[in-house]
Amino acid sequence: MEIIIQPDPEAAAKKAAHIFAQTIRSNPKAVLGLATGSTPLPLYRELVAAKLDWSAITTFNLDEYTGIGPGHPQSYHSFMREHLFQHVNIDPARIHIPDGLTLDTEASCRQYEEKIRNAGGIDLQLLGIGSDGHIGFNEPTSSLASRTRIKTLTERTRRDNARFFGSAQEVPLHVITMGIGTILDTRRVLLLASGEGKADAIAGAVEGPITAMNPASALQLHERAVFCLDEAAASKLQRIDYYKWVYNNKPTWQQ
Hints:
By secondary structure, this protein is an alpha/beta fold. It has helices at 9-26, 41-49, 76-83, 105-118, 155-160, 162-165, 180-184, 199-207, 240-248; strands at residues 2-6, 31-34, 58-61, 63-65, 95-96, 124-127, 149-152, 174-177, 189-193, 225-230. The protein has one domain (2-231): Rossmann fold (3-Layer(aba) Sandwich).
């Protein structure tokens, strides 16, 4: 696990965007896992500004609300179009987002997993983290071996997402999300987090026990997990000075 700590959210997003841009430049046919929410917005702005070639890139999004269609302003289809896809030369056929309107959820989830496998697996997966440690919409107590499936959102998560809908009552109760097992299968994971509100979840994920009560702690099992944090999100890490020392003194070939 690599811990990268930057002074502020913008610097953390730039560092994360650099890692994504490196991946795209080194592998023009890379398979990217993408996330939504307020945290990745500056990262997506950096990627758009970088003028990269997305023509052979394939993407898979982590999740989607059920009961709302791709045209709904708060759907993750709409989010990705607005903040990334309409600004880059990606082939729409290579964009994959769970179907929130499917009439057969279990079959749709199986098909999503199959599409990931058929694409050769995900090379780099972007994650945020909830204040309770959830990744994707894998809420606390989610199986650490879980696959793409339907999940019921907690009231805490619905309150956290109410700012996008107007009220917690308007946030859909269910979502389709990649599972923790799906995330752990990716070749590299980059978790981006900022703000003091994420500090407890980050401390538990990095330095606490591996537990379903903090789903992000499962990333301790990942061979290549990177946490890209601002100072506030990293503020409750006990070994913060060590992480900074290691990062600042990496061998030149790793930088």
